[in-house]
């Protein structure tokens, strides 16, 4: 069974990027492909872009999308095997996922990490329960450790903006934030950028090392200035500490990018997955200026999801 | 006007079961039947299966379904006739139901009991207000005292699993729970099982007698062991006391079914409407074993709803 | 770009009314007009009629509607330009509106006033941010100061019930309420009724003067009895004080209309936008009697929205 949970292979990524760009030119070309097929979109956490872009992607393929915001609708799921359910949870993931598996052709699931239970988070415990029990293809709408639809949209956006024939220098830079933020976007971006053959530099303050599983092949430095030198694409993202799990070590505002940071990278484009905390993660001048391609990334979320759903329908 | 609120007649039930089984084989055979028709799904209480299965049933008939979660969306309805609305309620059921009646072709409504006001609950007061004022066909998505779409799905599931030519022994057994639970599922199951001609035995601890209105024709005993003897189908469900209204009298865990309980009913299938509190209402070994047909019941919710909506469209 | 935010010109209003009445006769006549077009419905505040009627209007035109209840889904938007977003807001309106602008063909937005910041409210600050940043046509589903889809539905309803050849006397009367209520419905009704050439009388207790911007051309009096004399249509609505902004000055229950109030206006029809507080704003005898056309207004919300969306699709 074909799930979509992570980067698998460059050939697959390239195919999905091509497919997405074709859909972007002609969104409804496959309007009959998903006729009579249903995708259930399960949100255990809030969403704006992901929900809307997934629904639109499904509609563009003629599929029906049903959204369930389980976080807001008081349907607390039990995740522990063998639990005696005499407390707050009302239904076991085993039973809920299996029912959803009989109701839909594809399940799309958002399940954030706790940021307190490192073991469960790095096993992607909650998300993997859906895969285990649903019995149908599952698409990640962001799990505890990955956000592959975002990363696919990011790769599409880089593809659209890179100079032909030049292997771009891609930089992932940590940015300050006031809250403890998951690692999923940063992990996935590293996984996909490296997998797609981009030259990736990751820069962050000491103590913000990401899980090595995702960063093999990247240059890693705590010197942001050096990292930004000659950059073509700069991906800005906060994440909390991974080693000292879920903690905030630094809120050093000098890490927030301003025009000053781009003296040695005059043509660099700036990326962010949104939502962005303005003037905390990124300055207004960057977001409102010509470097920013954050809106392009958001738009490409539609076509990333459409390519992935289309692929699954071909199974 | 044709509402769907309860068991009416065996011939109607048989027709709906046949129709549902036909739709299960070919879900989209009537895709043009509901074209241009709309069902409004009003939830005064949370829902997972009911909401999704009703939406899917509507889509399978080409209908448009619009869901309104009025419990979560802060739209407190006034139910008392003549009320001076100078407190928390923002709209009278009279006005809200009448508007919904002009917006939709069918209204589907979920309205749980208070479990504190017995008189209003047994009159199915809130649900009946929707019928009174909507002016269009109303389908129960579970009212204070009945859950007929669940029961129809249950009858379909029994039909699929019974041995041809043998009148099955059907048992409804009370199970422990940590909360005060409505009587709707138990009432309706009794009403439909008896109405469909099944031999029904109901077993529960002393003090958990159901409203006699629903159980006429059933054997009732507080000896669970005796009840389970030679059972073909065992429906497991908690409910709170009816006489001492809404109270929890027992949480005796020996009532929770385990494999040990089936020594004298080796071929019995186990049913539950879900969500189920694992290892409180039912043991993991039952739910994860071959006796369990709870997922089949859940799946049949789609076709039960589809048969009922289809019937209403024929009016 | 064509937005729909207020009364523009009598010729436009007349065209929309005619179009709406044509759709009412034949709701699906333009089912292919909106094919492949999407409207995003953004609710920063709760809604029943507006949400359902807008979705239905879109469906009647073959459009896809996606609803986002941002009030309930914890997506607090930052509205201040240049804000350092180190507090509760998670996304700037600039970014959110721009993304929504790439996802949809039309944006429909509900944004109530604060009733505490008069300057921002009368500038319609939040709503105008969506217009500023979305880059696509925006439809008001009620802003801080106007509710034009309601008013268009009201004009349609008057059109349907007026006596041919007679210019009706239209009265807008303040009514008591227990909460501080926005001015949007009253403002818009005045704006549209005057703009459509109706003779409008506004009556309210001293201290409840509306913003003069909306009431130019109306007769204004604090003598409700005199105002009601020979009325053909009486629009009942509460609003809080405008000068002493957002305050409740009177809850004088003698302003609540009963049959007694209609001695000198025997044929008057009574209107209200709903939801209505029964026996606070309006008596049961009026709402349940023959004068009430409040359900007609609610029904016409569908066709008002359909006419407006249809107009935008013609751009």
TrEMBL record, chains A, B, C:
Metabolic or biological pathway, per its Swiss-Prot or TrEMBL entry: Amino-acid biosynthesis; L-arginine biosynthesis
Top-level taxon of the source organism: Bacteria
Reaction it catalyzes: N(2)-succinyl-L-ornithine + carbamoyl phosphate = N(2)-succinyl-L-citrulline + phosphate + H(+)
Record-linked HAMAP family: SOTCase
The protein's role, per its UniProt record: Catalyzes the transfer of the carbamoyl group from carbamoyl phosphate to the delta-amino group of N(2)-succinyl-L-ornithine to produce N(2)-succinyl-L-citrulline. Is essential for arginine biosynthesis.
PANTHER family: ORNITHINE CARBAMOYLTRANSFERASE, MITOCHONDRIAL, ORNITHINE TRANSCARBAMYLASE, MITOCHONDRIAL
The protein's name in its UniProt record: N-succinylornithine carbamoyltransferase
Organism: Belliella kenyensis
The organism's taxonomic lineage, starting at the top: Bacteria, Pseudomonadati, Bacteroidota, Cytophagia, Cytophagales
